[in-house]
Design goal:
single chain, 82 residues, mainly beta, Jelly Rolls, three-stranded antiparallel β-sheet, two-stranded antiparallel ribbon, 1 helix, 5 strands, elongated
């Protein structure tokens, strides 16, 4: 299923799209945000930070992606997303 097919549905319930500056932190590891982001265009880096402070990229999310699914399933926690 392509999420772009449902972009109009998201926009009918959500605020209008907005631009987010590079390196803006959207979600933080082990914290539930309480909302979803729908990425229309661009790339979002998803990474985890270990106890030594080292970052490990686990995904590069592209347009047509939902970010923050932990607000739907609160038992799973976010990983850090930029």
């Amino acid at each position: 299923m392509r999420l772009r097919n449902y972009q109009g549905l998201f926009e009918s319930f959500c605020p209008p799209p907005s631009k987010v500056a590079k390196k803006t932190e959207l979600l933080r590891q082990c914290q539930t945000a309480g909302w979803l982001y729908y990425l229309i265009d661009g790339v979002v880096k998803v990474y985890i930070t270990n106890y030594e402070g080292n970052e490990h990229i686990v995904d590069l999310m592209r347009g047509g992606t939902l970010i923050g699914m932990d607000c739907v399933t609160p038992v799973s926690l976010s990983i850090r997303i930029f």
